[in-house]
Give the backbone structure.
Amino acid sequence: MSAEASPDGAGKGLSGLRVLAHPLRLRMLSLLTGSSFSAMELSRELGISQPLASYHLRQLHAAGVIELDEVRARRGGRERRFRYRPGVQASTSDATTNQEDHALLGQAICVELQRRVRHAAKGATRLGVDAELWVDPTEWQTALDAFKAASNNLHERARPPRSAGTVRVSVSAFLFAMDDEPDEADNPERS
């Protein structure tokens, strides 16, 4: 999943970032990267009810985060299958997102990361990065471009869950420039 702020407008309903601020939606988005799924297929894969899967798919679709991939005839009805493609991103702008949206997304990513860490393969190579740094703006842009390229590369090569010859991996990054003003919560001794 890759959510990038862009100035081209907002989705309907929840903002692009706020719609992603739910651990279950993050899991769905990860699955929808490698393959298209219907609500029923997602419900089985995630162990949730079909109505719950359908609700979250509608939220993601209304915000413009996923796209309708195909419609199939199934048991006298229609099965709608959705997919996430790296070029389909949460459309947000300064006017439609706020600090709270970003904080909620960060919180959801933390919850999802905690779940994934419990499933880390024993003996697997791990890379954990956490930093609050001051860098040259040009170097910051270079780093952002490199992370975006790596993310797009992985998304484009994602396969359906449990495909032969694949390994299940976790990738999380939340990169952003910070303001220069310290928050009161940054220094507990001042309180």
